[in-house]
Design brief:
Rossmann fold, 6-stranded mixed beta sheet, single chain, Metallo-beta-lactamase, Chain A, alpha/beta
């Protein structure tokens, strides 16, 4: 029995997750992400190399299906390009929450980043809509017969709402591809769960596989301490984060802390899509942790008491505040705009709660304590603010492959 893997992204790097596994004569593409640190041809997986390797005339005939594990851009960001530009028209599978929330992530990124740079290989809003119409939604532990020989099944992965680990079986060959998963529960999601399975191939994320870190509780405590210290001194806190998924977790953390400490400092969220996202989070409460399900009858945990919408004009307001804004790696958009404005002040704080890929401003901040960041030959930012990166979020992107 021959098993082949073609890693088109996230093999030895974080970003553009895309692995094609051939099992039992069936080719399955797992994830179709973009790399947030590149703005040239490396932005997307090398799809042309895949066609050449397979000797196939097109992607639709070459692939049995595409399965996307969750809605983060490094796992789904290239999908509209793959379907609408590269011409893939075969089956695409993802969970119901991923199908519901992915269009918001894709359009938000397209508007704030891709349009600004005027990239040649970009897709339009209409491309996103056409792409998502082709998606077949999965439920957890639902066995789907892709064709007479291939079946797939989704398992709960934690990480973000709707994230899944994927089991695939063709003939006598079976495998699991994990995508991102959490083995530690957080405020709104449970831990990853999967059946005991006999596998020939396991492809699992492994970015922090050898990293020993402080407990999640300790990192959250340090995060809250840094934020409280900054606003108590009259400073502004910038928290770059993507508008869906981990942003809701951090909002819950700060909302609860503000309530306990009776703080009156405003907490803002700049992304307009948050209102729509929270609507879906409320509708998809069944995908959250048991604790959230139990408390939902009393109060919806996504109705934040202390978090309100941010107007662009507020950026010049005096006094302390906390601002969540996109994108999470300060790769463009309003997070970069706010960073330019607030970084020169020693009173302010930039806290990076998640992984930042190489090439982004966020990664430059995490790589040391720069006093100046050069965006291009004409744009320089003096960095006098405090910088903290507790890495509150469990993010593990690049993969390790285990064969039987």
């Amino acid at each position: 029995m021959a098993i082949e893997c073609l890693v088109l992204g996230a093999g030895q790097e974080v970003g553009k997750s895309c692995v094609v596994a051939t099992i039992g004569g069936k080719r399955v593409m797992f994830d179709c992400g973009m790399h947030m640190g590149y703005h040239d041809r490396r932005h997307y997986p090398d799809f042309a190399r895949a066609l050449a390797a397979w000797g196939a005339p097109d992607f639709t005939s070459a692939l049995s299906c595409v399965v996307v594990t969750h809605f983060h851009l490094d796992h789904i960001g290239a999908l509209p390009y793959f379907t609408e530009i590269c011409g893939y028209h075969g089956p695409i599978y993802m969970t119901y929450p991923t199908k519901a929330l992915a269009p918001f992530m894709l359009e938000d990124y397209r508007k704030v980043t891709m349009d600004q740079r005027g990239q040649e290989e970009q897709y339009s809003y209409e491309d996103i809509l056409r792409c998502m119409k082709k998606v077949i939604a999965l439920d957890l532990k639902q066995t789907v017969q892709v064709d007479k020989d291939l079946v797939i099944r989704a398992y709960y992965a934690g990480h973000v709402l709707g994230a899944a680990m994927i089991y695939a079986k063709a003939g006598d060959a079976a495998m699991v591809y994990t995508g991102d998963y959490n083995m530690t529960p957080d405020r709104h999601l449970g831990v990853a769960q999967i059946d005991r399975l006999k596998l020939d191939l396991l492809i699992t994320e492994s970015t922090y596989a050898k990293t020993i870190r402080d407990s999640k509780h300790a990192r959250e405590r340090e995060f809250l301490k840094a934020v409280h210290k900054c606003v108590s001194g009259g400073g502004k806190v910038l928290i770059p984060t993507f508008a869906l998924g981990r942003a809701q977790e951090l909002c819950m953390l700060l909302d609860d802390y503000w309530e306990r400490m009776n703080l009156m400092v405003p907490i803002y969220f700049s992304a307009g899509l948050t209102i729509q996202a929270n609507m879906y989070y409320k509708m998809l409460i069944g995908w959250t942790s048991q604790k959230i399900k139990d408390s939902h009858a009393v109060r919806n945990p996504f109705d934040f008491k202390h978090v309100c919408h941010f107007e662009r004009s507020f950026i010049n307001n005096p006094g302390p505040c906390v601002l969540f804004t996109t994108p999470g790696m300060i790769s463009g958009g309003f997070s970069l705009e706010a960073f330019k404005k607030w970084a020169p002040s020693e009173k302010n704080l930039i806290t990076l709660p998640g992984y930042c890929v190489a090439g982004t401003v966020g990664h430059k901040l995490m790589s040391g304590k720069p006093t100046r960041i050069d965006l291009d030959k004409d744009t320089h930012i003096d960095v006098r603010c405090q910088v903290a990166f507790q890495l509150i979020l469990y993010v593990t992107e690049n993969c390790t492959i285990f064969k039987k």
